[in-house]
Amino acid sequence: SVSAAFREHLRRLGLQDFPCGLGSWNKSRFNAGTSSHGGRLGLEADPAGQEEAVRLGEESPEVLMELLSDRHSPWALPPDCSPQDQHLREMAVLTPELIHSSNIFQVFRSLRIIGKGVEEVDEGLLQLQQLEELILSANQISRITSANLPRMLKVLELCCNAVADLQDLCSQPPPELQHLGLGYNRLRGPLQDKYLTADFWPNLVSLDLSFNNFTDLLGLVSQLSSLQKLRVLVLQGNPLALIPTYRGFLVDSLPKLSILDDIHIGPDERHQFHGLARQPELIRSEARVVVSVGEVKGIPDSSAQQQLEVGSEAPVITYSYHVTYEF
What we know:
Helix content: 10-25%
Number of helices: 9
Structural class: alpha/beta
Number of strands: 8
Shape: extended
Order of helices and strands: HHHHHEEEEEHEHEEHH
Largest sheet: 8 strands, mixed
């Protein structure tokens, strides 16, 4: 589940291990509880005693922070870690008494769990109430229940999973979602087209449906046209992208679109395809594919092997090969 992967992520951050957390390396700076006079939590009353404790084998906050920031340190985070991971570890050094579940959950604005074999988006994710970006690419998710998604979510990326049905995702979708990434999944039109409307995604700006199995261009466009805030659309890799008038029809049908299949739509292109949306008869449910074979390896060249003399009665051997293309 996502929750299990998140817990493993926190474990790898080592928030309770040196140089973070509470331990023999900083025990003189923190008490077990608040002082009887209402002073700051964990500060020793005697600064001289604190300095002596540090001198006798503990580490100062500055030294501990340096161990986190120095890229040559064995405790440094990898370069691709998020800023919030670094922030959590700094909290674990400077104020380790604040590192507990409720505070950690409030820190996370972005969560990236990529290629961890996640199959379920469970309700434990709701503890991350401030989460705005959830990246779950390259996992094994086939269905996702929107009731388990934080309501503040603005980015949901599910690229390279096994999602085949959007019904559960659209039951209670996050109302502020701006990007929905569903590329490289198992969505099949026209059954899923009805879930791609403003009724479910009123604030959607970016939509990635690439490399699925959408085939009905007219039906899909009729649903997408309700997404008034949509500016970025990716449909490449679907069978409908092979239709000759595919790009022109989309450009003219969705006048507010700025980018289609990672290519900017300029005024010249929009003018070129003006009026095409009113000619649906030009869209045919067929496509032409031309396959060119540039080089074939592993097949003997019979012409080079047979150097027959003129008038020779030696038998001639003919080779033939059958090539099959599977789509």
